[in-house]
Design goal:
The chain has 394 residues and is an alpha/beta fold. 42% of the residues lie in helices and 15% in strands. The protein is built from 13 helices and 13 strands. The chain has a seven-stranded mixed β-sheet with strand order 2-8-7-6-5-3-4, with helices on both faces. It has a four-stranded antiparallel β-sheet with strand order 9-10-13-12. Pfam families: Aminotran_1_2.
Length: 394
């Protein structure tokens, strides 16, 4: 018998494909230094000056308790409630906001508050690869439901068929990682109608976790609707790591939909402190909390991302790649030439170009490119993509 907890081993099993990719990737980079790295959403240029200035300013103590324990500080929560109300068109209050260590912390908080052992959570396929291990660690079950083929729309029929008496949460990731799909208000309203019916059928409420860390990274003037606008039983997680392109700064929040019935809203608000403490003092470091107002309107260059998107789509398209044009995020998703993403990624690695194979997303035919690479990296990678297409499609 294992001396370690069953749920820890279940989390390890869930993340093993990602862990294997990490191991392979790190070994490959040592042998073949990267000409272009399109794997993760990491920066490849120096941080935004406004981010650096904000951190410098607020790292300097202004009182004896500057670095004391922090919780959901009143002023930052009130600031965020006001900003979020203006952005999403909903009347958030300070008590609806829990400051967390990035979106990871917000998702963990949601799972801790809502899930009992054995409960089920529906997640999109393809989708972010960390839902599974986090659910396993919560002793809950991940239920993967494919998005619509080609369009990657929400597949309402598939969601309906996946719902059981143990279903507690449906994750909606919009804009969606890895495809870049943004779901319209009409799409979300249909999901809301479905969950109202299904909640009544199974005798308890099904929640939506709206995973929105890419909410402000959108292209072509496309708008954004949060599921919280159409479905009251929604919690929103957000991270500043994407819009600042600073994923090592663990700053985010979990927000309760202000349209939630008053008694349920109050119950969740009351749980904030206890759950954050139980989750390992799940609160951002003090300087990040102080810096929050300075960081709220800072953004990476969305126009530059859009230009990289167009450059890559144009080049890859002429070599026969079948790519999805993203509406948001900083990713491109497409079919690997020949349909084997591992073989395709290995072919590129030999030329110093690194992409994320779809096996990591349980879609072994596809692959993901991260557009946080520099323009120089993109141009340097073009011969490798052309050569890989020629080899894999022979």
């Amino acid at each position: 018998m294992s001396m370690t907890a069953r749920r820890a081993n279940a989390a390890a099993h869930s993340i093993q494909k990602v862990e294997a990719f990490f191991t392979t990737y790190n070994a490959a980079v040592k042998e073949t230094p990267a000409v272009a790295d399109f794997t993760f959403g990491n920066p490849h240029e120096m941080p935004l000056p406004s981010v650096v200035n904000a951190l410098k300013t607020h790292a300097e103590p202004q009182s004896v308790d500057w670095f004391a324990y922090k919780t959901n500080e009143a002023d930052p929560c009130a600031f965020l409630a006001d900003a979020l109300s203006k952005e999403l068109g909903l009347p958030f209050e300070a008590e609806d906001i829990a400051l967390t260590k990035g979106a990871f912390g917000a998702i963990k908080m949601c799972f801790t508050m809502l899930l009992e052992p054995g409960d089920e959570c529906i997640v999109p396929l393809p989708g972010w690869f960390c839902y599974g291990p986090m659910l396993a660690a919560a002793d809950a079950k991940e239920v993967q439901v494919p998005l619509g083929p080609d369009s990657f729309d929400l597949d309402l029929e598939a969601i309906a068929n996946a719902i059981t008496p143990r279903t507690k949460i449906v994750v909606v990731n919009t804009p969606h990682n890895p495809t870049g799909r943004i779901y319209s208000r009409s799409d979300l309203q249909k999901l809301s109608d479905l969950l109202e019916v299904k909640s009544a059928e199974i005798g308890h409420r099904i929640w939506i976790l709206s995973d929105e860390p890419y909410r402000r990274i959108r292209f072509d003037g496309i708008g954004f609707t949060t599921p919280a606008a159409v479905y009251p039983h929604t919690l929103i997680d957000y991270s500043y790591g994407k819009i600042l392109l600073a994923p090592g700064l663990r700053l985010g929040y979990l927000a309760i939909s202000p349209t939630l019935p008053a008694a349920e809203r109050k119950e969740l608000q009351t749980l904030r402190f206890a759950v954050q403490m139980a989750d390992g003092w799940n609160v951002p470091d003090a300087p990040l909390i102080y810096a929050l107002p300075d960081l709220e309107n800072v953004s990476i260059d969305i126009a530059a991302l859009a230009n990289r998107r167009e450059r890559m789509l144009s080049a890859l398209g002429q070599w026969g790649y079948r790519m999805t044009k993203p509406e948001g995020t900083f990713y491109l998703w497409g079919r690997a030439p020949g349909g084997d993403s591992d073989a395709f990624a290995e072919c590129l690695q030999k030329r110093g170009v690194y992409v994320m194979p779809g096996t990591v997303f349980d879609r072994p035919t596809d692959f993901r490119i991260c557009l946080t690479a520099t323009d120089e990296m993109i141009e340097n990678a073009m011969p490798a993509f052309q050569a890989a297409a020629n080899l894999m499609l022979e």
